[in-house]
Structures are given as C-alpha cells and as structure tokens.
Amino acid sequence: MKTAISALALATALFAGAASAADLPSHKAPPPYIPPPPIMTWTGFYAGLNLGGGFLASNSSNQGWNAGWNNGNGNSGGVVGGGQIGYNFQVTPMFVIGAETDFQGTSIGSGGGGNNNLWLGGFGGNAGSARLNWFGTVRGRVGITLLSPQLLVYGTGGFAYGEVQRNGWWNQNSAVQTGWTAGGGAEWMFFPNWSAKVEYLYTQISGTGNNNNWGWALNPGFGLNNVNNRTRFHTIRAGINYHFNFGSPAPVLAKY
User: What's this model's pTM, rounded to 2 decimal places?
Assistant: First the structure.
C-alpha cells in the first residue's frame, strides 16, 4: 500500500514539473534582422560633372558684314565640359521640380570663312573667327518619374550667359553676352546617392559693346566689319551627380 502511494506521488510530481516547464518563456533566438531597402528620393541638393559636345546653329549670326553681305560658312563644333549644382524637390512620387546652375568651358567656334570682309567685288578681306570660350546657365527643371521611381525625365530652361571672342587680321576682342536656354534630358538614379544623366540644350545669347571687327578695305566707307552679336548653339552632354543627404527628408524608422 505504501509502495503504491509513493509511486502515485512520484508520478504526480513529475507531471506537475512537466506542466511548469511548459509554462516557462521560450528562449528561441529571434529571426535575423533584414534591413529595409534604401530609400530612393530625388529631394535634396546635388553636384556633379559633365562632358559632351556642341556646335553653332545654322542661323547663328556670327558673321560680319561688309558691302552689304557676308558668307555664312565656317561654323564648327567643339567639346563642352564643366560642372553643375542644384536642388530637387519631389512634390509627389511622380512629380519633381528643381533648379540648377552650371558652368562650361568650350572649344565651339567658327573659322574665318564665316567672317570675311568683302571688297572690290569680293576679292580679299579681313578673315575673322568667332569662338565661344565659356558659358553658364541658371535654369529651372520640371520632371516626372517615368516607368520607374529611379528614372526622371525632365524639361529645363532659364537664363544663359557666355563669352564670345572674335578675331580678325587687325583686331581681337571679346564680350560677355546674355540670353536664354531651353532643353530637356533624362536622369537615372542607379544608387541612393548617385545618378547619371543625358541632357540637350539650345542656347541663344546676344549683346552689344566692343564685340566688333574693324577691318581695312581699299574702297572708302566699306571697311567696317560690324558683327551682329547674336550667337546660337546646341549642346549635348552626359553627366554624373552625387546627391547629398542634407536638404532631403529624414527616413522614418520602424520600431521593433
């Protein structure tokens, strides 16, 4: 009898211990932390470099005149390169606005065939050349994220300025001209802080002042090679931008 009671008491104790162990908290390791994907946003400041080419438009008034007309040949292209800084604001997931300024050095120019004095029936003259030494722009940008949040297609336009130099046999002078520019492009953000772009601009600058060629001719009164100071040119550039964190909204972190 005593042996049966002892066995029953032992069984009860074992059952109670197992039940208590089941009530203890689990010490199983938590699942590994998987960070959220990086936030892709266009909002914020950026800066970068670009390189491309350009050429004078066919209707660019880079020719002088003498005796009433001048040949317009000799326009040529060149290399364009420089840098840009700007700021974007992503108004909605699809709509982005911003502003950008850039400064470019160029080798765009035209040969003397487009700047000849004509005298004595066109036999002879003061061969000259026009060259765009540098230019800059201050532009607004409006774009949409097309097909992907990382692809921005945009239009741009605003103020332009540049130095045009004209050289003749008898003189050399240059002047800073001002005007406008317009164009568009596409920009791809391939990392959270890096993007690449391709951009086209049409630019027209003009001005008055000392940017004239004064040539000598045998026939009196026809020696003035007065330059029409309107310069029009096209540029196509590829560039890369680094997007800074300041100026962009802080990410919202989830609580665990």
Answer: 0.70
